[in-house]
C-alpha cells in the first residue's frame, strides 16, 4: 500500500490519540469525515493499524520494578526456540521478548513486577525452569528516559 501525506498524518495523529473521533481526526488532517473514515478503514484492512489499546501506569498498578533479562539457550534449534518463545509468551509479566544478536545472549526480555521478591520468584521459579535456558543476566531499569510507542511515519 502506497501511503500519501494524508495517510501518514492520519497514522501519526492516531498514534498520539487512538480515541480521537473521526470528525476531530478529519479536522486535524484537513479531510472530509467520509474520506477520513474511508482511509482509516483501508489502513486497517491493509494491516498497517494492528489495533487500539489503552496505555496503563505500571507504578499505579503496583508494578514498580522493570528489568531487562538476557537469556542464553543451550541449543540453537527451531524446536528449542519455539518452546522457549511459547513459554515466555504465557508469562504475563513479560512485556517484550526479542531474539537478538551481538550479545552473549539469544533473547532479551523486558519484564515488570511489583518488587525484588516478585522478580526473584519470576526468575527462579518460572524463567530459569524453561527447558534450554542456560544463562541469565539481569539489568534493572532505574528510569525510563525515552518511553514512546509511536513509530515515525513522517506525518508530522
TrEMBL record:
SMART domains: HTH_ASNC (SM00344). GO terms for biological process: regulation of DNA-templated transcription; response to amino acid. It comes from the Bacteria. It comes from Thauera chlorobenzoica. This is Transcriptional regulator, AsnC family. It holds the Pfam family HTH_24. Coiled coil: none annotated. One of its GO terms (molecular function) is sequence-specific DNA binding. GO terms for cellular component: cytosol.
